[in-house]
Design goal:
Largest sheet: 7 strands, parallel
Low-confidence stretches: none
Helix content: 25-40%
Strand order of the largest sheet: 3-2-1-4-5-6-7
Order of helices and strands: EHEEHEEHEEEHEHEHEHEHEHHH
CATH topology of the largest domain: Rossmann fold
Strand content: 15-25%
CATH architecture of the largest domain: 3-Layer(aba) Sandwich
CATH class of the largest domain: Alpha Beta
Oligomer: single chain
Number of domains: 2
């Protein structure tokens, strides 16, 4: 089996810090190679991989403002599809745009739908419903009008996350600084309970940061530490008393939630989207519906066994499990394609 993985090119694969889609594409690529599967990765030229790397874009366009995203996206996607017949499976991690190229090749195309940024992109997915294959990253993320071949949860590389049996004295918010992720709500929770809060993540909405985060940074309780790379991420997640995830949107998966639990850190999350699939309520964290509920359950965090958080991830969300599940999907597609 020869698999082509199409990674996004907003960031390097794997990303230095932020870049969740590139991160998953990288974990899958390297995991498939460990299983002896031939992989060609389409990603930026500075990407790091054991796969055969094919690239046209020198670096992630989010890292170089001179690169016009649409120009390089078109060149990147077309580079794969012009070679499409060289592969047994094309696995798209690049959202909806590559679907418009599927008729350039007879090779089956699988798309992992990492998220729906807007209902306005759905017409593309609907058009290619019967001409390609879709995987959801949680059952909650499924769109009723789309056909899915499977749900495959993201996996994490446990070797990158150190288990810490002893809770720290701070709360952590780890993710995009944006209304969708609930940064403002995390600050409100921390201030009401009087606990130190560390904020880590890319500032995706500068006006939101200016209005809802910056005014509180003079307070000794609230600290913004910027974007955290792998080493700092491990330290922050493992050292936290709890991860706050007061999301304002239905989360399709939630990598930071799994990563926190991998370190033994319980999660308090608003119960939206996939959170009831990712968090074992009362065992690896708490699902709540409001700031007030989040404050109440913070008093119960001590009942969470941090070792149980790690075991939950080992059972459900390892990179090995993700890779095995994708191989099953590939085999299913190839069997259908022969008939």
């Amino acid at each position: 089996m020869h698999v082509a993985i199409l990674s996004p090119i907003a960031w390097r694969t794997p990303p230095r810090s932020y870049g969740p889609w590139e991160y998953v594409a990288s974990l899958l690529t390297e995991g498939l190679i460990e299983k002896g599967i031939k992989v060609t990765l389409f990603a930026t030229k500075n990407s790091i991989t054991k796969a055969n790397l094919i690239s046209v874009c020198p670096r992630g366009y989010e890292e170089d403002s001179e690169l016009v995203p649409k120009v390089w996206e078109c060149l990147h996607i077309s580079e794969l599809f012009e070679r499409g017949d060289d592969f047994d499976i094309i696995h798209n991690h690049f959202d909806f745009l590559p679907l418009t190229y599927v008729k350039m090749t007879s090779t089956p195309v699988l798309t992992t739908i990492h998220g729906i940024s807007s209902p306005k992109i759905l017409p593309v997915f609907k058009k290619y419903n019967n001409q390609s294959y879709y995987v959801s990253i949680s059952n909650a993320a499924r769109i009723p009008d789309l056909k899915y071949i499977a749900t495959v949860y993201h996996g994490v590389d446990l070797s990158q996350f150190t288990f810490n049996s002893k809770p720290g004295d701070y709360l952590l918010f780890f993710g995009r600084i944006h209304h969708d992720k609930g940064t403002k709500e995390a600050i409100k929770i921390a201030l009401k309970v009087g606990m130190k809060l560390i904020l880590a993540g890319i500032i995706q909405d500068k006006n939101y940061f200016k209005r809802n985060v910056d005014p509180f940074l003079d307070n000794d309780l609230i600290n913004y530490v910027g974007v955290a790379g792998p080493k700092k991420r491990d330290e922050l997640l493992g050292g936290a008393y709890a991860l706050l995830n007061p999301i304002n949107i239905p989360e399709a998966f939630g990598l930071s939630v799994v990563e926190a639990m991998a370190c033994g850190t319980p999660v308090i999350s608003f119960n939206k989207g996939s959170m009831s699939e990712v968090i074992l309520n009362g065992k690896t964290g708490f699902l709540v519906d409001s700031i007030e509920e989040a404050i109440k359950v913070l008093k119960k965090i001590d009942i969470i066994d941090r070792a149980e958080c790690r075991r939950w991830v080992e059972k459900k969300f390892t990179v090995e499990r993700m890779v095995d599940n994708y191989i099953k999907v590939y085999e299913s597609i190839l069997a259908k394609d022969k008939n």
